[in-house]
Amino acid sequence: MEASGAESSKKKSKWSILVLLIGTFILFGTCLATVFGIYIDMAGRETKGMLVNDSNCDGNRTCWTARINFNTDSGEEIAIYPNLDQWPFTFDRYIESGTFSSPARIVNVKYLENSPMFAKVNLAYHIEYVNRLTWFFWGLVVTFIGWVINRNKPLLVLDLSKRNK
Predict the structure, then answer these.
(1) What does the alpha-carbon distance between residue 63 and residue 66 come to, in Å, rounded to a whole number?
(2) What's the whole-number mean pLDDT along residues 85-106?
(3) Which residues are CB-contacts of 125 (< 8 A; sequence separation ≥ 6)?
(4) Residue 74 near residue 82, CB atoms below 8 Å
(5) Residue 102 pLDDT more than 60?
(6) Is 116 a residue whose pLDDT tops 70?
(7) CB neighbours of 55 closer than 8 A, spacing ≥ 6?
(8) Contact 92/83 with Cβ under 8 angstroms?
(9) Residues pairing with 48 in the sheet
(10) Which residues, 6 or more positions from 108, have their beta carbon under 8 angstroms from its beta carbon?
(11) Largest Cα span, the chain
């Protein structure tokens, strides 16, 4: 009986360490992407780019794959695929014009002059960072779950023995 209990705790331990590592990786990656995005916001060159839907869908499904085409100051044509859903672009368009219209339009792009493939879209009120905040939140949740599972002592102890005194 004790051998199976020891095996169970080892498996639990391996899974809890894996959950902790995944959460830490999500947190680290999100923080790194956010710092890099802020760096591009501060040190990048600004230009205009064309936002187009680059998806190939069959049937009645609505698909969205954003592609931004822009030209650098040196004349080089660049195409980037921002990791954003359709809603930030639609929300940005609504803020600018007051209507929900077609997302195919001109957007602001910031890029690094030495490496123009490192670029990002600048939307109204920097709503592109909402995606990063969401990933940061889920990274915190997964890391906290891994940390709680890894603990040898309980997280919270309620002593109800002195309740009636």
Answers:
(1) 10
(2) 62
(3) 95
(4) no
(5) no
(6) yes
(7) 63, 64, 65
(8) no
(9) 108
(10) 46, 47, 48, 49, 121, 122, 123
(11) 81
% of the chain with per-residue pLDDT over 70: 75
Give first-to-last CA distance, the chain, whole Å: 41
Q: How would DSSP label each residue in 101-160?
A: --S-EEEEEEE-SS-TTSEEEE-GGGTTHHHHHHHHHHHHHHHHHHHHHH-SS-S-----
Distance of CA 63 to the CA centre of its chain: 19
Q: What are phi and psi of 112, to 5 degrees?
A: -85, 130
b (16+ CB within 10 A) / e for 92-106: bbeeeeeeeeebeee
Contact 106, 96 (CB under 8 A): no
How many other β-carbons are positioned within 10 Å of the β-carbon of residue 159?
6
Three-state secondary structure call for residue 18: helix
pLDDT of the residue at 162: 75
**How many CB atoms neighbour CB 149 within 10 A?**
14
> DSSP per residue over 36-93, as a string?
HHHHHHHHPEEEEEEEEE-----TT-----EEEEEE-TT--EEEE--S--HHHHHHHH
